[in-house]
């Protein structure tokens, strides 16, 4: 433990209360009005220069100290999910069907706890930009802030962000060099046949059988087309078609999610999956219409900035605080866009044995507020020294 960690831990109760208040009042993507107002009020009261309305409901707080031209960006996401909370906690969501099930309430509180400590005690030279981002869950907030001139209006030499991770011991840090989280794309496939009587399949074109074959064939994209030393995920998460046992429907709709770490593999799937869908449907006399929607790219952590952050954590908390075997995750994160614009790193903090992210029983672990906030304060001191 360091002086920074001790000071933050001594006053963390206020930020636990703040985190639970955010949890009680979750807001969906681009609707983070109360949350961003609260963030702006806190930052202003601690002496930050605050700009609101960046990329919608985004907020940036800037603190300049001493001589020095270096600038550091640290980002937290603020939005909740369309999930009905099932935790039964005293501070559970007060908004029906909306829930902080990804811990963005925690990420916001962590960065605020760091912000106050840095404003009071932080010794650094240069510019610190604290970036509170909306709409991560729909993959739109980072792009919206960047399109609104984030890095022109608030220049940063590097930008960092973190995510809590269930199943990893509470407060343990994870660093990944290279791709840390996967790209995410979606294929919406309509298999068009020709409807008819279930008793006379020869007079119809059955899109259900064509879809069944297509679903199995899609699994061969990863096993037979992708380089075995690379990774990809193809999941058919939704299939809808038909109304009754004795009716062959006109069509079937499939929704497919596609993940990968390597842009070359991503492109291979973008071309290969529609081709496969058309050929498979065609072999049954049916037709596949494919709406392939590119989501966001993989979050790729450059080596230099990642090892810098890892060294900061090791110096502040000891080697035991770092999970040496933390692996990349196949979930996705729109911080990827910030890493395309600037060097930096996306890192992880264990959330202990909580329910999984995006689960109605998930809750952010308040025990990790203090160590994570102390990490941001240490990173600021080291980067802007
Ligand atoms: Zn999420
Ligand atoms: Zn998240």
Distance between the termini: 20 Å
- The average pLDDT score comes to 97
Give the strand tally: 15
Query: Reading side by side through the largest sheet, how are the strands ordered?
Result: 1-2-4-3-5-15-6
Q: Give the CATH class of the largest domain.
A: Alpha Beta
Poorly predicted residue ranges: none
> What is the fourth-level CATH superfamily of the largest domain?
Zn peptidases
Q: What is the CATH architecture descriptor of the largest domain? A: 3-Layer(aba) Sandwich
Principal-axes geometry comes out as elongated
Major β-sheet profile: 7 strands, mixed
Number of helices: 11
What is the number of independent domains?
A: 2
Helix coverage percent = 25-40%
Content-based structural category: alpha+beta
What is the ordering of alpha helices and beta strands? Answer: HHHEEEHEHHEEEEEHEEEHEEHHEH
CATH topology label of the largest domain: Aminopeptidase
Q: Which ligands accompany this protein? A: zinc ion
- Return Rg in Å: 24 Å
**Strand residue percentage:** 15-25%
Can you walk me through this structure?
The protein folds into two domains: 3-181 and 298-383, Aminopeptidase, CATH 3.40.630.10; 183-296, Alpha-Beta Plaits. The protein has a seven-stranded mixed sheet with strand order 1-2-4-3-5-15-6, sandwiched between helices. The protein has a four-stranded antiparallel sheet with strand order 10-12-8-13, with helices on one face. A two-stranded antiparallel sheet has the order 7-14. The chain has 385 residues and is an alpha+beta fold. It contains eleven helices and 15 strands. The mean pLDDT is 97. It has helices at 3-10, 12-24, 33-45, 104-121, 141-147, 150-153, 207-225, 263-282, 303-317, 335-341, 369-383, and strands at 49-54, 58-65, 71-77, 126-133, 158-165, 173-174, 178-181, 183-192, 196-197, 232-240, 247-248, 251-260, 287-296, 299-301, 344-350. Strand 3 (71-77), helix 4 (104-121) and strand 4 form a beta-alpha-beta unit. One zinc ion (ZN) binds at residues 102, 104, 136, 163.
């Amino acid at each position: 433990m360091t002086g920074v960690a001790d000071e933050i831990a001594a006053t963390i109760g206020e930020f636990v209360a703040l985190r639970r208040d955010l949890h009680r009042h979750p807001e969906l993507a681009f609707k983070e009005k109360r949350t961003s107002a609260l963030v702006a009020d806190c930052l202003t009261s601690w002496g930050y220069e605050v700009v609101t309305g960046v990329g919608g409901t985004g907020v940036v707080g800037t603190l300049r100290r001493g001589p020095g031209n270096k600038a550091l960006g640290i980002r937290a996401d603020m939005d909740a999910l369309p999930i009905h909370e099932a935790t039964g906690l005293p501070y559970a969501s007060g908004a029906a069907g909306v829930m902080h099930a990804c811990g963005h309430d925690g990420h916001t509180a962590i960065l605020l706890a760091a912000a106050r400590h840095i404003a009071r005690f932080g010794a650094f030279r240069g510019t610190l930009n604290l970036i509170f981002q909306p709409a991560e869950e729909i993959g739109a907030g980072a792009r919206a802030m960047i399109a609104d001139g984030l890095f022109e209006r608030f220049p940063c030499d590097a930008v960092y962000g973190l995510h809590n991770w269930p199943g990893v011991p509470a407060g343990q840090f994870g660093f990944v060099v290279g791709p840390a989280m996967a790209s995410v794309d979606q294929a919406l496939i309509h298999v068009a046949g020709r409807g008819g009587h279930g008793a006379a399949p020869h007079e119809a074109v059955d899109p259900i059988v064509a879809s069944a074959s297509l679903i199995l064939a899609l699994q061969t994209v990863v096993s037979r087309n992708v380089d075995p030393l690379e990774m990809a995920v193809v999941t058919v998460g939704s299939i809808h078609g038909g109304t009754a046992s004795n009716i062959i429907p006109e069509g079937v709709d499939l929704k497919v999610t596609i993940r990968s770490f390597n842009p070359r593999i991503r492109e291979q799937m973008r071309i290969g999956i529609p081709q496969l869908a058309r050929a498979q449907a065609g072999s049954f006399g049916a037709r596949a219409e494919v709406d392939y929607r590119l989501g966001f790219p993989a979050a790729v952590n450059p080596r230099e900035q990642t090892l810098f952050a890892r060294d900061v954590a090791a110096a502040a908390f000891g080697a035991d605080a770092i999970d040496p075997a933390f692996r990349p995750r196949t979930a996705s994160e729109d911080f990827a866009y910030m890493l395309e614009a600037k060097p930096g790193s996306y890192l992880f903090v264990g959330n202990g044995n909580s329910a999984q992210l995006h689960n109605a029983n998930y809750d952010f672990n308040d025990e990790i507020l203090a160590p994570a906030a102390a990490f941001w304060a240490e990173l600021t001191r080291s980067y802007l020294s």
